[in-house]
TrEMBL record:
Organism: Kitasatospora aburaviensis
Similarity remark: Belongs to the CdaR family.
Protein name as catalogued: Helix-turn-helix domain-containing protein
Region (Disordered) location: 470-491
One Pfam assignment: HTH_30
All residue ranges annotated as the GAF domain in the record: 87-238
Domain of life: Bacteria
PANTHER family recorded: CARBOHYDRATE DIACID REGULATOR, DNA-BINDING TRANSCRIPTIONAL ACTIVATOR ADER
Length: 653
């Protein structure tokens, strides 16, 4: 039986049990303390100390993942509340309750301005026990909320009672004291750059709020602002309809147009309720307006419909942003899709040169719905990209540590690592030594490039790595290195060329992209990444920065110019089909090919060298052609084959 004083195994098992049970952080320190009390040797204590530190890191990571999962679930639920046709108070109450739950505070509350009274009042509270606090009214500029409203920035205090940054009043301090609040954080509800309320979370004991908690509360505040804006829009619509019902014939005709716009709004709301995507909204608006709708991203690439003429489009989008309305662009109409002042894309309407006021408002309302959908999609994509980036980093750093675990993680994220993928390695054309800001911009461009696809991308070292499913890569064809082989190498080259061109446009500077051969499985994908990295370095040495290429497209130049000089990789890539065939069948295709080239392409001399009949040589070379392709004996291809044969011979393989 193992003596716990001379072995660390019992302590390690105990650490694993603590991780599995989700024990508190303090419990992990007890393991080392117990071992020290039992008189364990210094070496064992050192090993337990290291294991405890690693276990705490895993424990902290798991806790962060659980917290992020809870936050994302709450944001999804809040988005669902916004999409559902629920009362405004119910939506605001749900947002405040989730803010309190996610931040773990004693209370949470939301204040709104009262324009008639010239002050602000408590609209919704959760966790409050004081009637005085629940009915508190605040003059503009007073207290922490007044500072948030004036500056449109979040503020937090670990102890409100002693914080002199805020204008204290007797009424506010009495309410805070009656509720027993100490630590308070407040964030603004912004709509079009204007503060329309303040969302608070508070504790009855001193506490410092982290930046992550501030960001989470700001996101919930944005949802509350959307709910208020939607309620106001619906109220305005109902008021307009009530006025139109009492008008004359001309007004009734106009009322019919507004009702049509309301039907369109309801149609768009119904689409959002059913979880529709941007193309569904575009199709619905096109049917309502009797025209053709295209939705473009910020780079002018179509998200739905066909691309618009680039000439003059940027000026029209800028005019729409300035005026806050749709503008005419030739025979078409253009409306900027905005989130506040941030551009998210553009709506283009064709086929309706004359657009009435009601239809124009419907077109503009469609841009608001499109902005909401794009924001929701971006929030989900950013969260997924963070997790996928962690997967990609682990895949490239230690692929052989737990291949099955990596594959399972990828499958949970919608990435099947068991299927062939093309690994693209991208760097700013100014590398090496490129500033970190350029790499950051390139990473953002890669995120937009992969948006809506099944690929993943992340910064890795001094490059940005993209993992693209092979079936999403451009179709193969005949490139400068010949037709596609069975491994689809030419598709990898085309994928690299397309990525280099698109990433350069999105990032605003030239980008060099290298591609490894399509591969499946963590270990093979890591090897393909190394191949793509060598390809990038070879392109740099060749003076071809800003271009895209595959390792196979560079051929032996990749071996000569790449930093790694991967002889085995080049030999395997060039002679792989022959080597595999010889290994499976016990044939001598590689030896026959070497003899053929050594004899200057003479079948007669080759058969003497091999001591076989000339027909045998012909049959073997026919098999070589089947495995390598019809161009195996062309000058450029034969040069690579002869170089690979010589490298194989010299390496003793």
């Amino acid at each position: 039986m193992t003596d716990p004083r001379t072995s660390s195994a019992p302590a390690l098992r105990r650490l694993l049990d603590l991780l599995a049970s989700g024990a508190a952080t303090e419990d992990f320190a007890d393991v080392l303390a117990d071992a020290r009390r039992q008189g364990a040797p210094a070496a064992v204590l050192s090993e337990i100390d290291d294991a405890t530190w690693q276990a705490l890191r895993v424990h902290r990571t798991l806790r962060q993942h659980r917290r992020r999962e809870a936050e994302l679930t709450a944001l999804f639920d809040t988005a669902g509340d916004l999409a559902a046709s629920r009362e405004l108070d119910t939506v605001l109450q749900a947002i405040v309750r989730r803010a309190r739950m996610l931040l773990g505070t004693d209370t949470a509350y939301l204040t709104l301005p009262d324009e008639a009274a010239g002050d602000t009042y408590m609209r919704v509270t959760d966790g409050s026990v004081s009637v005085l606090f629940q009915n508190l009214r605040l003059s503009l500029g007073d207290g922490l909320g007044g500072l948030v409203a004036q500056t449109a920035r979040p503020y937090a205090t670990p102890d409100y009672r002693t914080d002199e940054r805020f204008h204290h009043t007797g009424t506010i301090d009495a309410g805070v004291l009656d509720e027993g609040l100490v630590a308070i954080i407040g964030v603004p509800l912004l709509l079009g750059g204007q503060v329309i309320g303040v969302l608070f979370a508070a504790d009855r004991s001193p506490r410092a709020f982290s930046p992550d908690e501030v960001a989470l509360l700001c996101t919930l505040a944005a949802h509350a602002a959307i709910a208020l804006d939607t309620a106001k829009s619906l109220a305005d619509t109902r008021a307009a309809l009530a006025e139109l019902n009492s008008a004359n014939e001309l007004i009734r005709a106009h009322s019919a147009a507004v009702q049509r716009a309301e039907q369109g709004h309801d149609r768009l709301t119904d689409l959002v309720l059913r979880g529709a995507e941007v193309p569904d909204v575009a199709a619905a608006v096109a049917a309502l307006l009797g025209g053709e709708i295209a939705v473009l991203d910020t780079g002018g690439e179509p998200l739905a419909g066909r691309a618009a003429a680039a000439e003059g489009l940027a000026e029209a989008v800028a005019a729409s942003r300035t005026e806050g309305r749709s503008v005419r662009h030739g025979e078409a109409w253009v409306c900027a899709v905005l989130a506040g002042q941030e551009p998210l894309g553009t709506l283009v309407l064709r086929g309706r040169p004359d657009l009435g006021d009601a239809d124009r408002r419907l077109f503009e309302r469609a841009s608001v719905v499109t902005a909401l959908l794009l924001l929701l999609r971006r929030s989900v994509a950013e969260a997924e990209n963070r997790v996928r980036g962690e997967l990609l980093a682990d895949l490239l750093t230690a692929p052989d540590r737990d291949p099955a675990g990596l594959t399972a993680r990828g499958r949970r994220l919608g990435v099947d690592l068991g299927r062939p993928h093309v690994v693209l390695v991208a760097e700013p054309a100014g590398a090496p030594g490129t500033a970190a800001t350029d790499r950051c911009r390139l990473a953002g461009a890669a995120e937009r490039y992969l948006f809506g696809s099944r690929g993943i991308g992340a910064e890795h070292g001094e490059t940005v790595v993209l993992l693209v499913p092979a079936e999403d890569a451009p179709p193969g064809g005949r490139g400068p290195d010949g037709p596609d082989g069975p491994d689809g190498t030419d598709s990898a080259r085309l994928a690299a060329e397309r990525a280099a061109e698109r990433l350069a446009r999105l990032a605003g500077f030239p980008v060099t992209v290298g591609a490894g051969r399509p591969a499946a499985g963590p270990v093979a994908l890591a090897a393909a990444h190394a191949e793509g990295l060598r390809c990038v370095r070879a392109l740099r040495v060749l003076g071809r920065s800003g271009e895209g290429a595959s390792a196979r497209a560079l051929g032996f130049l990749g071996v000569l110019l790449g930093d790694g000089h991967d002889v085995d990789g080049f030999v395997g890539a060039t002679l792989g089909p022959l080597l595999d065939y010889d290994a499976r069948r016990g044939t001598e295709l590689v030896r026959t090919l070497r003899a053929y080239f050594d004899c200057g392409g003479s079948l007669t001399r080759a058969k003497d060298e091999l001591h076989v009949h000339v027909n045998t040589v012909v049959q073997r070379l026919d098999r070589v052609e089947v495995l390598l392709g019809q161009d195996w004996n062309h000058p450029e291809r034969s040069l690579e084959l002869q170089l690979a044969l010589r490298l194989q011979l010299l390496s003793g393989a």
